[in-house]
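User: Hi! I have a protein structure encoded as tokens and I'd like to know what sequence might fold into it. I'm fairly new to this, so please keep things simple.
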């Protein structure tokens, strides 16, 4: 099988899906590897390093799509790539299908086998760790006077108090933001809907971090005192109610900061997506930092961690085939998004009103000893295809 590493072309994306280390493992398995020219350059990996690991460098994206049986990258398939997709080609990347109607249609029209990488992580994505830690630092940078912020220092100075931070969500992203901010001396409160999560966070930090149940009422009470709010909530797509509405944003101190790591429309009414080139805007006197791919700012570290985390999925698909790989790993199975013209992603079915079929059915593996995995989201769809 020919495996290909594409150069990511999304604006502000500097990561690459595999380093020379992963390429060496795939080559040792007996596969041919093609790497698009300069795919790893901005993450610190030169073409010569990939060649030493056994890969061949290919000049163009068009040639990559034409020659490779299996293609991988970090972010979404862009419109310029749609017509290059080939029937039965395997695609592994962060598709974010529920939010990208045209991308999903292209995957279905071209009858590819597509896995959405963000749903495949058994222990959470390294991208979530990176987004939480770096997002916290971006929040502190946004507080600087030179960026329109209040000019407060995280831990304070002699005679000047440190900042107060509210973290929405105590999952992987929120906990990593907390780790950075608490270690730097901020006064942090974490809100979550899960009492067990709050209890665990309290014990982890010897009760030196405040925790509260996440309700709009509780958040509204706290916002007027907060210098920094970090949104790490995975919000149900299609929700009509804001967790933080415009009036609540107005209540925050002038020069305070909102960092929206989750980038889900519906959590914060004043949110709109930004890029690394133009990362901030001020609305209602509050600095907003809403870059959608924060991990791209630390491309080398994130690439090394992320590439290592997905290597086993890539090797399993290539060495065992799609069906056997999905039998052995339920998290890979649940990430199957499109299979030869059929939608296999439940959340996308619900939010785009498309018919779908369970991966187990389309792969004809229902009677096998399947590795279990929980659903990727709480969104359900009854718009089922019956073969």
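Assistant: Happy to help. Inverse folding works backwards from shape to sequence: for each of the 387 positions I chose a residue that suits the local structure. Here it is:
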């Amino acid at each position: 099988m020919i495996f290909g590493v594409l150069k990511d072309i999304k604006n502000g994306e500097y990561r690459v899906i595999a380093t020379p280390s992963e390429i060496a493992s795939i080559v040792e398995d007996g596969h041919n590897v093609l790497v698009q020219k300069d795919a790893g350059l901005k993450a610190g990996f030169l073409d010569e390093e990939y060649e030493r690991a056994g890969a061949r460098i290919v000049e163009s994206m068009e040639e990559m799509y034409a020659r490779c049986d299996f293609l991988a990258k970090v972010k979404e398939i862009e419109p310029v790539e749609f017509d290059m997709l080939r029937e039965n080609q395997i695609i592994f990347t962060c598709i974010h299908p529920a939010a990208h109607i045209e991308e999903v249609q292209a995957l279905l029209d071209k009858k590819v086998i597509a896995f959405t990488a963000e749903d495949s992580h058994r222990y959470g994505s390294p991208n979530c760790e990176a987004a939480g830690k770096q997002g916290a630092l971006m929040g502190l940078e946004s507080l600087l006077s030179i960026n329109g912020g209040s000019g407060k220092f995280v831990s304070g100075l002699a005679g000047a108090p440190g900042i107060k931070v509210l973290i929405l969500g105590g999952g992987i992203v929120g906990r990593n933001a907390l780790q950075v901010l608490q270690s730097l001396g901020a006064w942090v409160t974490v809100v979550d809907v899960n009492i067990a999560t709050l209890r665990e966070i309290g014990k982890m930090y010897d009760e030196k971090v405040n925790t509260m149940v996440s309700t709009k009422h509780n958040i509204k009470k706290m916002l007027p005192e907060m210098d920094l709010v970090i949104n790490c909530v995975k919000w149900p797509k299609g929700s009509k109610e804001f967790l933080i509405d415009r009036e609540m944003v107005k209540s925050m101190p002038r020069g305070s900061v909102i960092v929206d790591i989750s980038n889900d429309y519906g959590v914060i009414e004043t949110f709109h997506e930004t890029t690394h080139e133009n990362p901030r805007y001020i609305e209602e006197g509050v600095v907003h930092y809403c870059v959608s791919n924060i991990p791209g700012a630390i491309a080398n570290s994130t690439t090394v961690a992320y590439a290592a985390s997905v290597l086993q999925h890539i090797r399993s698909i290539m060495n065992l085939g799609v069906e056997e790989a999905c039998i052995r790993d339920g998290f890979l199975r649940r990430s199957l998004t499109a299979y030869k013209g059929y939608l296999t992603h439940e959340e996308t079915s619900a939010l785009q009103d498309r018919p779908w079929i369970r991966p187990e059915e389309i792969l004809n593996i229902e009677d096998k000893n399947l590795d279990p995995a929980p659903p990727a989201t709480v969104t359900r769809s009854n718009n089922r295809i019956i073969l």
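A useful reference point when you look it over: The mean pLDDT is 96. Feel free to ask if any position seems puzzling.
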